[in-house]
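ok here's Transmembrane 9 superfamily member:
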Amino acid sequence: MFSYKNRSLFVLLIALIVLCEQCNAYLPGLAKTYKANQNYTIQVNKITSVHTQIPYEYYKLPVCQPDKKDYESENLGEILLGDVIESSLFREQPCTVINGYQDTKCEPILTADQTKTLQDRIKQGYRAHWLFDGLPARQSELEAHQPGFDIGFVGRDGQEGIFVNNHFKIVIHYHQAPGADDYNVVGFVVEPSSVEYTGASPKGYEKDLNCPASTDGSQIVDKDSFILWTYSVTFQKSETRWEKRWDTYLKPNEQSVRFHWFSILNSLMIVFFLTVMVALIMMRTLKADFRKYNSIDASDEPEETGWKMIHGDVFRPPTHPMILSVLVGSGVQVFAMTIITMLFAILGFLSPANIGSLQTSLVVLFVIMAMFAGYFSTRAYVSFKGTNWKRNTINTAFGFPGFIFFIFFIINMMLRGYGSSAAIPFTTFLSLIAMWFGISVPLAFTGSYFAFKKPVPQDPVRTNQIPRQIPDQIWYMKPALSILMGAILPFGAVFIELYFILSAVWDNQLYYIFGFLFIVLIILVVTSAEITIVMCYFQLCAEDYHWWWRSFLTSGASALFMFLYFIYFFKHLQITKFVSIMLYFGYSLIMASTFFVMTGAIGFYACHWFVRKIYSSIHIN
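and the structure:
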C-alpha cells in the first residue's frame, strides 16, 4: 500500500505528465518545403457560425470524406476551441470530381436528414475551416482577418432557394528562392462556388474524375438531389517569404490602427490626470499634514483631525477576512497569468501557426500560478489576524477555480447536447481534473505554507480595543456611490480595446495585436492603482476606516461596467439560438469574474501600500 506521501507524489507525477503533453503549444513552427509534383494533403478542421457560436466537425456535413481519416494530435487549446483537424481528399491539381474517388465515403444523393442538416447549416451562416501547411484558408484576398469560407448561401442573383458551394477553386501561393528546386507555401485561398453540372446523375461518375460541363445555375439543396463535389488547384508564385506569410492575416488595417492609438491616447489622458491628482496628494497635501502632525509637541495635545484621527482603527481587520483574502489571492493568480501570457505573446511564443497555443497557455499558467494565489491569500489572511490558514488555503485552491470550472462544466454540457466539436471529451475532462487536483491544489498549499512561515509584518500604529464611531458621510462618499465612481476609470481605460477582443472572439476573427493589448494592460494597472489611492485618501480624510473592502471593490467594480458592456455588445451580434445566448453570457461571466478579482487585487495592494506609507511617516501620541 502507498503511504499518503507516496500517493501524493504519484498524483503529482501523473498531473505533470498531463501538463507536459500541453507544452507543444509553445514550440515554434518550422518551415516546410515542397517539391514540384509532390503529393500533398489539405486538412479540414471545423465549421463555425457567428449566429450560433457552436462549432461542429467538418465531416458532420454530408460531404465526401476518406474511408480512413488521419487525425492530427491536438493540444488543450485546440480541444477547447473545437478544432478537429483531419485529412481530406484534396490532392490532385486538375478539376476533379471527388465523388469518383475509390477510397471515399460519399453519398451523392442526399437523404432527408442530410438535406435538413445541410440546409440548417447554410441558413445559419456556417463557414468551413481548412488548413494547409498550418495556414488557415481564406475566402478571398480581402478577407484575411476572417478565416474560412461559406459552405453555401440562401438566394442570390434572382435565384430562390438554399444553395450549396460544391466547387472549390483552391489557390496556393508559394515562394521559391532563385535556383532552388523546392518551395514554401505562403498563402492559401479557397474560392467556393455553387455549380450545377449538366446531366449530373449518380451513374457515370464512379470512375471519371474529370469535371463535367456545367450550367449557369447553382446547385440547390433539396431532398433526393444529386450533388457533385468538385475542386481545382492552381499555384501562384509569390514574393512573400515564408517568415512573412502571416503578415497578410495579422496586419491590422489603417482604421483599426487609428482606433487602437485613440484608445491608448484616451487611456493615457486618464492616467495623466490621475497621476497629477496622486502627485498633489502625495507631495502637497500629505506633506502639509506631516509637517503639521510632526511639529506639534506631544504635551500640547491638539485636537486631531482628518486621517490621523482614525490611526487607532485604520488597521482593524475587515469583516469576512477569509473571503477578502481568497479574492485577493485569486486576483494575484489571474494577474500573474495575464502578465506572463502577454510576455509570451509579445516574444512570439504564441504564434497563430500553433493553433490553440494562447488558450493552452492561459490554462497552464493559471494552474501554475496557484502558488501565488496560496501565498498572497495567506499573507493577507494572517495580516487580518486570521488563525485558520489551512481552511483559507482550501477556499483559495477550490473557491475561484471551482466557480470557473462550474460555469465551464455547464457550458460543456450544453455543447455536448448539441454534438459540438467544442465539447471536450471525457479524457480531456479527466486531464483538467488532474491538473487542478494534482498541480494547482498542491502548489496553492505550497505557497500558503511559505507565507505562513514568514513573519507577519507589524502595523505601523496600534489598534484600539474599542472601535470609534464613523461620522455621517457626505452623499458622494457613500460606499456604493464612491465605488461606482472610482470603477468607471479602469473600465474607461480598456473599453475600446475590449471591443476588438470581443469582435475577434465572437466574430471568428484573428486577433494578434498583443503589443497594443500589453500597453493597455499596463495602463489598466496604473489606473486601477491610482484611482484606488485617491478614493482611499478621500475616505480616510472623511474618518472612515473601513478601507479594506472598499480598496478591493473600487477598482474591482469595473467588472460590473464590463459585464454591462457585454450586454450592450450582445445587441450587435447575430446570435439567435437560446443555447448560444447562454454560451455568450456564460463566457462573459467568466471574463468579468477574472477581471473583477484581478483589478480588485491591484487596488487592494495599492491602497495597502499607501495606508502603511502614510501612517508610518507620522508620530503617534
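+1. The first strand starts at residue 34 and ends at 35.
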